[in-house]
């Protein structure tokens, strides 16, 4: 592919030469400084998942069919008994305006009693739509089994469904809905931040270089109070009577330059390729080509002559052709960034599927100095 890039594909040679610049390698773009709050979180300051089981009522005939969702029927019976309506038989329970749902929510840190949170309502049975329904009182519990919030209210569905005798249309997901501020916090999670002697900063992407830079940034601004424990944790100790919330506000506003490992992420289904800035390849020769097999089927019918004895026979006619794509080697100089390689391949019209195959082959040859992740 080069002459050292073959003359057959000058576009690739030009793209790589321009990208490399007169010195052989173009300048590496400087990484931007980011706030600590954007790459890390404070240990213990996090959300908690809540879940509950409830009923949505008021549906216009789009609820669960009680025969296919017996748990909905039992839930209706239990609810009505608690409300003083009992002695119902299965023959009397024929409602189609009720649906069993799972209710989920995230309890934010430091949520206080009386504050409200959003909830997501998802159908559990065979209801076709939750549009127009109202969620009745549903306790939301945490992983410890304690009730932390109670949800109730009219739900909002983004999708819709409509059908006739011979056609139907569905837009979005009408069996999932939201209730903005639909749950009220009834129980608080005890977390006494002001009484802590130290707090730990947890990096969202563990990396020793980034952790050390966070430690240095904190110590340069506030003295020697930070210490790196591992690739994802930095411990910050506070003096007596220190304003912990104020100290955390200062720390999360400090900026550092995060580091990361070189990685190539490939989504083979959509042909998406994401390449890190530090990805490099060794000197390697690449050849891309293959076979194209074309199969063409035609159906012919053979019929006997009039007034003759015979049967009508279907005779398939198959044509097979093989086309071989001409392939030539390309020598890629060492320490060329993978981004330049992809730009050069795009310049000569190599498809995303072919590019993915080339990257996988370069990795198998040991010339790709990066992690190759296929999702």
From TrEMBL:
GO terms for cellular component: bacterial-type flagellum basal body, distal rod, P ring; outer membrane-bounded periplasmic space. GO terms for molecular function: structural molecule activity. InterPro entries: Flag_FlgI. Pfam families: FlgI (PF02119). Keywords: Bacterial flagellum, Cell projection, Cilium, Flagellum, Periplasm, Signal. HAMAP family: FlgI. Assembles around the rod to form the L-ring and probably protects the motor/basal body from shearing forces during rotation. The basal body constitutes a major portion of the flagellar organelle and consists of four rings (L,P,S, and M) mounted on a central rod. This is Flagellar P-ring protein. It comes from Limimaricola pyoseonensis. The gene is flgI.
């Amino acid at each position: 592919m080069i002459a050292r890039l073959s003359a057959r594909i000058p576009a690739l040679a030009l793209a790589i030469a321009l990208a490399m610049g007169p010195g052989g390698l173009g300048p590496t773009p400087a990484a931007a400084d980011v706030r600590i709050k954007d790459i890390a979180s404070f240990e213990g300051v996090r959300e908690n998942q809540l879940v509950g089981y409830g009923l949505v009522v008021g549906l216009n005939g789009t609820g669960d069919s009680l025969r296919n969702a017996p748990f909905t029927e039992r839930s209706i019976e239990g609810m009505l008994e608690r409300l003083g309506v009992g002695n119902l038989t299965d023959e009397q329970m024929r409602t189609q305006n009720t649906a069993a749902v799972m209710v989920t929510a995230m309890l934010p840190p430091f949520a206080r009693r009386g504050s409200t949170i959003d909830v997501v309502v998802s159908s559990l049975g065979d209801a076709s739509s939750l549009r127009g329904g109202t969620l009745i009182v549903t306790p939301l519990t945490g992983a410890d089994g304690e009730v932390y919030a109670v949800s109730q209210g009219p739900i909002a569905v983004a999708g819709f469904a409509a059908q006739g005798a011979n056609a139907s249309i569905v837009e979005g997901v009408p069996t999932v809905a939201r209730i903005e501020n639909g749950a009220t916090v009834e129980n608080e999670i005890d977390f006494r931040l002001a009484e802590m002697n130290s707090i730990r900063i947890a990096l969202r992407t563990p990396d020793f270089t980034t952790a050390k830079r966070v430690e240095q940034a904190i110590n340069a601004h506030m003295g020697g109070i930070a210490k790196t424990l591992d690739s994802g944790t930095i411990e910050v100790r506070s003096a007596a009577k220190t304003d912990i919330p104020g100290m955390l506000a200062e720390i999360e506003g400090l900026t550092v330059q995060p580091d990361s490992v070189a990685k190539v992420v490939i989504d083979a289904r959509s042909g998406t390729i994401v390449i890190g800035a530090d990805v490099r390849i060794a000197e390697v020769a690449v050849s891309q080509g293959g076979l194209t097999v074309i199969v063409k089927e035609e159906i012919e019918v053979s019929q006997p002559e009039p007034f003759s004895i015979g049967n009508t026979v279907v005779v398939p006619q198959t044509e097979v052709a093989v086309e071989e794509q001409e392939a030539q080697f390309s020598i890629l100089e060492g320490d060329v960034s993978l981004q330049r390689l992809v730009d050069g391949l795009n310049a000569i019209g190599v498809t995303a599927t072919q590019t993915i195959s080339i990257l996988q082959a370069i990795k198998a040859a040991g010339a790709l100095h990066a992690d190759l992740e296929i999702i």
